[in-house]
Specification:
- The protein has helices at 58-72, 86-89, 91-94, 96-99, 118-142, 150-160, 171-179, 215-218, 237-247, 266-271, 279-295, 300-321, 345-350, 365-370, 408-413, 422-432; strands at residues 2-3, 18-23, 31-36, 42-47, 75-81, 103-110, 182-189, 196-198, 201-210, 325-330, 336-339, 355-358, 361-364, 372-376, 401-404, 436-438, 461-466, 473-478.
- By secondary structure, the protein is α/β, with parallel strands linked by helices.
- It has two domains: 17-123 and 161-233 and 316-478, 4-Layer Sandwich (Metallo-beta-lactamase, Chain A), CATH 3.60.15; 124-160 and 235-315, no CATH class.
- Strand 8 (196-198) and strand 9 form a beta hairpin.
- Helix 5 (118-142) packs across helix 6 and helix 5 (118-142) crosses helix 9 (237-247).
- The radius of gyration is 25 Å and the shape is elongated.
Amino acid sequence: MATRKTAKRASPKAPAQATVRFYCQGIGDSHLLRFQKADGKDFWMLIDCGIHTSVKGGPRTVDAIVADISSATDRLDVVVGTHEHWDHLSGFWTAREAFKNIKVDEVWVGWTENPEDAQAQELDKFKGKALAALQGAQDKLSKTDSKHLAAVRDGVNGLLGFHFGLEGQKVRACRDALVGMASKKVRYLAPSKRPLTIPGLPNLRVYVMGPPRDEGYISIRERKSEMYGLGQALARAESLMAAMQSEDGGAQDSSAPFEPNMGIELEAMLNGAVDLADESIRRTHTLLKASYLDEAYRRIDYDWLSASAELALQLDDRTNNTSLVLAFEFVDTGRVMLFTADAQVGNWLSWQDLSWTVDGAKVSGSELLGRTVLLKVGHHGSENATLKEKGLELMNHPDFSAFIPTNKEDATKVKWGEMPYEPILEALDARAGKRVLRADDPWAQHATGSRAPFRAPSGSLRAIRRSNTKGLWVEVDVS
């Protein structure tokens, strides 16, 4: 079987194959790609447009992004929505009126968004049940002053910010607005036997790396040998969903120890809103009042609420693992630009199974990683969104570079821990050095005295620019 040749290095005068404008909203993704067609006309692609609800002035920032896109082009050949998270899709809803001024030919989304796909329907059912349970848990968490649950409350609120807008809009509204923008076609993409080709762009192939079809990959959160840090175990999510569904009048909770018509509400017992003439009830009331303040953490409903953090993580993992991941290959050089969206461990692992036969040569997922010269780092550089041995350590091209859509200050405010994750930053630096760009870089933010992190041309990067508007975007020409 023939194999592909090693990717060529660009000559010092190699022209740009593409221009990539990375918007710098921080906790959110939006990337504008421009390719020159054989007839000299531009082909425009937008990948995502959103910002997390925690970012102050987020909708105004998205408005500025859409206005900038509109100033560059009044037509987008393709708009890509990678997955159902607010920080990737919100702009298609909040700036929907402004988007009406831009004609969109095609919309690309993952197979997970296809309403006629049976597997997508099952995933949708889980997401619906999980969101309903988490909203119920969030309401209860907001009403308790338990120190034991404070961290759980903060974590659940932060993760729900990926699914709801500031006014309670569901991210589904954003996805539907995006799909409605297509004037010609909506494509529901999955890894297939052939890469995509685009009329007028003979030098470009687009490989769909994810989302995987294998449910085993979709549900994977961690693989310690493949992560730059240690993850957390997940459990008890089904019990929480069952308990919340039962409370809301849905199906009976199969994990409950008694029939639903038996027992007394705890709050009623604590407040004395019960028949205290009954000796056994009076005794229970007295014992609870005496011990409750010291041992409230032992309540079984608090145990369920603690599980809400695990359920939120599971929902987040399944959504991120179904990210639409695209690898853009330049045919003449074999170089690759890889846009990973928020792909987590399972999505990355699935790439090891992928292979295509192109012009009689075998192309594997691992090989595409090895030929990557520009990486859009996943999920703002979080610990479980960039693999090690089967991920970043395969990206050994001498011209490797990366962009991280991260504002560390914003991530710290919403208590997400270390984002971007320091071991991943160190690994990126070891491979790309100064060719690692971040949304919060001083140069991108027009800090006084700051300079571009590297000179161009630098291998595959032929030029580097920043917006005249403070902190709006950085842009690279790629060869």
